[in-house]
Predict the structure.
Amino acid sequence: MSVADLTNSIIAGINDGLEQFLEGTLVAILPVVWVAILGLHIGRPYILEMIDRFTLRLGADLLWIIYIVLRDLLVVGGVVMSFMFVFPDVVTGSQLPITGGLASVMLFGVLLVKLMGDPDHNLRDYRLVMYLLGLGATFYFVPYILGVQFNGEATGSLKSISDFLVTSSNPGWGVGIAYLSIALLAIMGAVAVVYALRTGGRPEAEEPTVAE
Amino acid sequence: MTPDEISNAITGALRQGGSQWLVATIVAFLPALWTTALILHLGRPYVVRTLRRMGLRLGADAWWMTYVLLRDAVLLITLGLSLIFFQPNLVANLDLPITGPLSALLLLLALAVKLWRRVDDDVTAYRLSTAFLVSGATLYYVALVFAVEGADMSYLAKFAEWFTSGSNPTVALGIMWVSLVGVVLVAAWLFVRALNSAARTMGRRLSRDQPQQPES
């Protein structure tokens, strides 16, 4: 082996290893992000109850701001981190939950409902957000636990099911679902762009302005 | 191989591998930044709707400040990291989206609109900056997802070959130089505009501060 061969081997090792480490870390963090998103959305009544107990309006406003900033930024973070589910090469090469792309579509749907509707004040929109989150969590956690995490332990027919739920061992379905997710994300993105262009960045319904 | 040769090989590999990994990480991180920038920009109606519900001016200001800082900082960071698309050696040798420089130019144009007009008050300016942002993001996403990250798919091979800078360096460098000219022109215009604006406002202030000459 020459010095150049050794150098190239180490470069390839560094690049592949760090890339896999980065993707692996994202895959490991995403379930935590999903749990936090679910927890903050489900915990809304608790926050509202606490806000009612504040004697100062300032404290109540600050708690509400911190709550919605955390809640909504986590949803944005979840969508951004799910980007690897729409990369065909990553989907075929890594062990990802097979419906992870659809889970990111549901998260993007939540953002779209928040943009076009008013889930904090409209019951129908709130329910829609919760249904989308529930469906998204199912799409993420079922193949993640039964597929990605159970893969090494499963045997027999359970092993077949587990293999089916992981993208690298079922690349045909994995890439198909990735393309479906891309199409759905593109359609929803186009709807958001048309809405933003139509409204000029303003909420459609005029409401009372901030109290001085 | 001698111990010195092995040591040199490891040093060289760490240096080259580290730099390649850094560029690859920036390329991998850019879609995340583009998505965040788009979501924050398009999410303005939601932010304004929430803002109007704030009972106190302090809360509303804190909410708006957080939003504006995040939105504009993400746009600036995305533009800063897009600088890799204007480095000929990287463009010709690495697998980058061929339309990356054009997306960076469109991002700069969106920022220029923000400096030129009051995007938060002017509906037409908001629409213009949205159009630039969405066009830039689309150019970036399509080449990244279906070319750079889809190169292993046999049916995407032709598309990947065409839209990846490393496998189509002539066109990639052409797009890069054209975009670079655009970036320089926009940046020069912004620079001259900032100078003129500063000269105007400072001149006004100076003339206001000067003591009035007593009339003889």
